[in-house]
Amino acid sequence: MQRIDIDGVPVFAAPGPQRVTAALAFGVGVRDETYATLGVTHLVEHLVMGSLPKSHLECNAMVDTEMTVFHATGRPHAVLAFLAGICAALADLPVHRIAQEVGVLEAENCAGAHPTAAALWAARFRLTGPGIALAGGGVPVGLGEDVVRAHARRWFVRGNAALVWHGELPAELRLPLPEGPRPQRPEPVRREQAGPVWMRGPVAGVGLLVTAGDQRDAAVGAGLDVLVQRLRDVARHERGLSYHADLEIADVAPGQREVAVLVDAREGEEGAVARVLWEQFLGLVDHGPSAAELAHAVEGYAEDLDKGDETVLGELTRAAFCSLFDLPFRSGADGLAAWREVTRQQVSEALRRAVPTAVLVLPEGADPGPLAGGIEPRTLCDHVPELPKGTTFRPPLLARALTREARLRLVVGDDFLAHGDSGGDGHVIPWTQVEAAVPAAEGEGVFVVGRNLCGIDVHENLYGRKAVDLVRARLPRSAWVVPAPRAGEPGSTVPAGG
Asked: What is the residue-averaged pLDDT of the chain?
């Protein structure tokens, strides 16, 4: 691998076939958005790709939780033209196409992250960092040209870029990206956790999240690889409960790796799959893998390094990723050597250190039954046993008499908004913790989103016009996903001066 700088952009290159592959990566993804700007990164990517002329070049782009990548494979001159077009579009973003590209995003319906992984990130970080992926990541709502341009100017700059090039490196390669340093992102806030917890959430299948610490910890890596293989053996082959198990990783910062184990489940068997996942994890904690399991994991690592051009591209991409996020890079050969030295005891000890960080998640309504290992139930958002005192609103008396689902309470206080649902669960959002306020699609109302993952629907059909007025008056204008209506404007219920 060769590392050079071109126009201030680090380039990671290696010799390869005549049809070259290039990937221009930027250290920006869904984790760098807010509730109000969800989908803006994907929109920028679409605006850029939509500006390119038609060609037969094999090219595409992607946005995930952490990174945006524009990539192409073809003849060198065509790939150079592709990169030139990307740089030119970023320098002069074609914002006149926002409406069309938003329509394309609606058709694409891309969530931005696996729903189970997104729920696990949110269980750890709420709506900060990777946790914002729980809110979606597909279609931006009500974003103006200024917001889109500002996002591109901040993140799609040379200081936040890296290039992968597989093939002969041409002397004429240039990367005239917009000037700008690498942005400093705030560290996501971790939810306090004293021991392992399990919860229900909006997930597809079952998942387990653990904090792995050092990205180069071979014992954790080998141990979780064995765990995935055990799930395939037990949940799929022995019991017929699941088809697939895999890992998804979020490198939050140097020394802060979050690893999600994702397992699908046959409908109605999510609770059983969750038990298998937790039991197999505890088995590795208590006894470590067998010698055969560890040898199988090492052999799998070795096979991944024996895939020719695919392996080279993977190594170049990892190097670029580490460069973008200031992470330590280790070559595949060095990683394999480290795995070969790992012992069963080291795996056991490494996973035992991760137990207090464990979060097990399964779908709403699924029952995992009794779980060993001191794991405690928890809710994804903050529940409270009793609502605080304040101005209280309820649905109409007749509705409450006819259906239990209407037996709701809304409480508005000087410092908070609270809601009690028909099942007796209470939710509280301090005004200082409001992440977003989304106007109702129809009628008068607002959906209030808290950074603690609580969401409270305040609508005149439920609580009356007075409740909507009071809540709107207390919401900060900066929280509205689209501008809040001013007093006297159509749709406004906020009294003058409120």
From this structure: 91
Does residue 397 register a pLDDT over 80?
no
CB 428 within 8 A of CB 382: yes
Going by C-beta distance under 8 Å and a sequence separation of 6 or more, which residues neighbour residue 273? Answer: 205, 206, 235, 241, 242, 263, 265, 266, 362
In whole angstroms, give the CA distance from residue 288 to residue 349: 8
Burial class (CB in 10 A: 0-12, 13-18, 19+), 402: exposed
Show the 3-state SS of 200-269: EECCCCEEEEEEEECCCCHHHHHHHHHHHHHHHHHHHHHCCCCCCEEEEEEEEECCEEEEEEEECCCCCC
List, as one string, the DSSP characters of 412-454: E-SSEEEEE-TTS-EEEEEGGGEEEEEE-SSSSEEEEEETTS-
How high is the pLDDT of residue 106?
Answer: 87
How far apart (Å, rounded) are the C-alpha atoms in residues 94 and 48? Answer: 7
Based on C-alpha coordinates, what's the Rg of the chain?
A: 25
| Nearest-5° Cα angle at 117, 111 to 119 | 85
Cβ pair 237, 245 in contact under 8 A: no
Interatomic CA distance for residues 207 and 79, integer angstroms: 39
Cα–Cα dist 414/406, whole Å: 25
Residue that the structure tokens 């952490």 belong to:
66
Q: Is 491 exposed, middle or buried (0-12, 13-18, 19+ CB in 10 A)?
A: exposed
State the amino acid at position 139 in one-letter form.
V
Q: Decide: 55 and 78 in contact? Cβ < 8 Å.
A: yes
CA distances from 177 to 39, 62, 161, 162 (A): 22, 19, 9, 11
Residue 192 is encoded by which pair of tokens?
């306090």
The DSSP secondary-structure symbol of 144 reads -
177, 184, 235: which is closest to 205 by C-alpha? 235
pLDDT digits (tens, 9 = 90+) for 199-249: 999 998 999 999 998 888 999 999 999 999 999 999 999 999 999 999 999
Compute the distance between CA of residue 344 and CA of residue 222 in angstroms, rounded to an integer. Answer: 10
The HSE-up count of residue 489 (CA atoms within 13 Å, CB side) is: 7
> What gap in Å lies between CA 222 and CA 302, rounded to an integer?
12
> For the chain, what's the residue count?
498
CA–CA gap between residue 144 and residue 148 (Å, rounded): 7
* Two structure tokens written together for 215: 């990205």
Model confidence, pTM: 0.91
Distances (CA, A) of 258 to 247, 253, 350, 358, 387: 10, 10, 14, 10, 34
